[in-house]
Structure formats: structure tokens, C-alpha cells
Amino acid sequence: MAKVLATEIRVGNLIEWDKRIWRVLKCYHVHVGGRGGAFMQVEMKDIEAGTKTNQRIRTEDKVERAFVEPRDMTFLYQEGDNYIFMDKENYEQLSLSQEFLEGQYEYLLPNTDVQVNFHNDRAIGVQLPASVVLTIADTEPNLKGATATSSYKPAKMETGLVVMVPPFVLQGEKIKINTDSGEYIERM
């Protein structure tokens, strides 16, 4: 494990806090001005118990980053509420629940390459590719004369994910989506 400054904490990081491993869900820098001093407001989830907490960590404090072993895996298929992944090295299969994937499963199509992070031989998180290409299953029809303006419309992807897209994007088209922000990038 390595110590890092509180200002270096990022969403998705695993840190050790109170002798437990936590996944950072939200993190932002707060400067009160005057007397208060600056701190990091960190919302994190215990990977064992699933409980969430908010912590204020002074910017000059250091926290322990948990050691994780990343493994390259491929998402194979969904079976009920479980998602089946295969290790690219030894071809072993791993089943992760929809609850464990919390907001990430909507980006998964069969044969998507991901990185699964392990801590003490236990899966603790999935790192998706930076972007994915999905097909629009349903969206409002194109409006006559609509151009790339600041108005966006909701589009439901083949996986159930809803993304705001420009008005000229149509049902059945493939679009690239940023997996960090869930935002439309471009038409494919």
C-alpha cells in the first residue's frame, strides 16, 4: 500500500480507512476561506459491508491506497441478475451481481473487455473502458430542421442505459458514450 495526499484521491480509488477498504464514490475539494482551511469531502462505500460514509479529510493529510491486483477479463453474458466474466489468462469464469456492478452494468455488451480489480483474491471493482459503442433502441424522432443546438433528447440504449443525445441522432444508430460521465461523445 502507498500513502497519497488527500488531494490525490479520485473517484474509483480504493483507500484504507479505519482498517477497512473503501471505494471512493464522490470526491471534491472544499475551501472554506478564512479560518477553516481546505479539506476533501469524500463519499465512500465499504467494499465488505456495503455501507456508505462521508468523510472530511484535511488536504495535508495522507491516506493509504489499497493494493489491488488488476486482471484483464471479458464480459461474456448475463444470467438473471448475475454478469459472467472470463479471465483472459486462465479462462476461469467469475460471476458478479448486478448490485456489485452498481451503475456499470448498463455499459456492458457481450465481449466487452474490462479490468476487474482484486484485493486478497476477492473481486472488489470493475474498471470499464473509457468509452463504449451502443445502439439506440428508442428515442424521439428527428425534428425537421434540427441542428446541433444546445437542446438534447433522451435516448434509451440496447442495454437500458438512458443518454441525452443531440436531436439529429436517430433510433437504430450506434453512438459512442463516455463511461465515466455517461455522456454522448459522437455518432459512429
From TrEMBL:
- State its location(s): Cytoplasm
- The Elongation factor P C-terminal domain sits at 132-187
CDD domains, per this entry? S1_EF-P_repeat_1, S1_EF-P_repeat_2
Q: Which GO terms describe its biological process?
A: peptide biosynthetic process
MF-aspect GO terms: translation elongation factor activity
What Pfam families is this protein classified in? EFP, EFP_N, Elong-fact-P_C
Which SMART domains does this chain map to?
Answer: EFP, Elong-fact-P_C
- Asked if Kinase is a keyword of the record, the answer is no
Pinpoint the Translation elongation factor P/YeiP central domain residues.
Answer: 70-124
InterPro entries for this protein:
Elong-fact-P_C (IPR015365), NA-bd_OB-fold (IPR012340), Rib_uL2_dom2 (IPR014722), Transl_elong_fac_P/YeiP (IPR020599), Transl_elong_KOW-like (IPR013185), Transl_elong_P/YeiP_cen (IPR001059), Transl_elong_P/YeiP_CS (IPR013852), Transl_elongation_fac_P (IPR011768)
Protein keywords: Cytoplasm, Elongation factor, Protein biosynthesis
Q: Which domain of life is it from?
A: Bacteria
Q: In which pathway does it act?
A: Protein biosynthesis; polypeptide chain elongation
The cellular component terms of Gene Ontology attached to this UniProt record, alphabetical and capped at eight, are: cytosol
The keyword Chaperone is annotated on this UniProt entry: no
Spell out the family assignment given in the record's similarity comment: Belongs to the elongation factor P family.
Instruction: Describe its function.
Output: Involved in peptide bond synthesis. Stimulates efficient translation and peptide-bond synthesis on native or reconstituted 70S ribosomes in vitro. Probably functions indirectly by altering the affinity of the ribosome for aminoacyl-tRNA, thus increasing their reactivity as acceptors for peptidyl transferase.
Which NCBIfam families does the UniProt entry name for this protein? efp, PRK00529.1
UniProt-recorded name of the protein: Elongation factor P
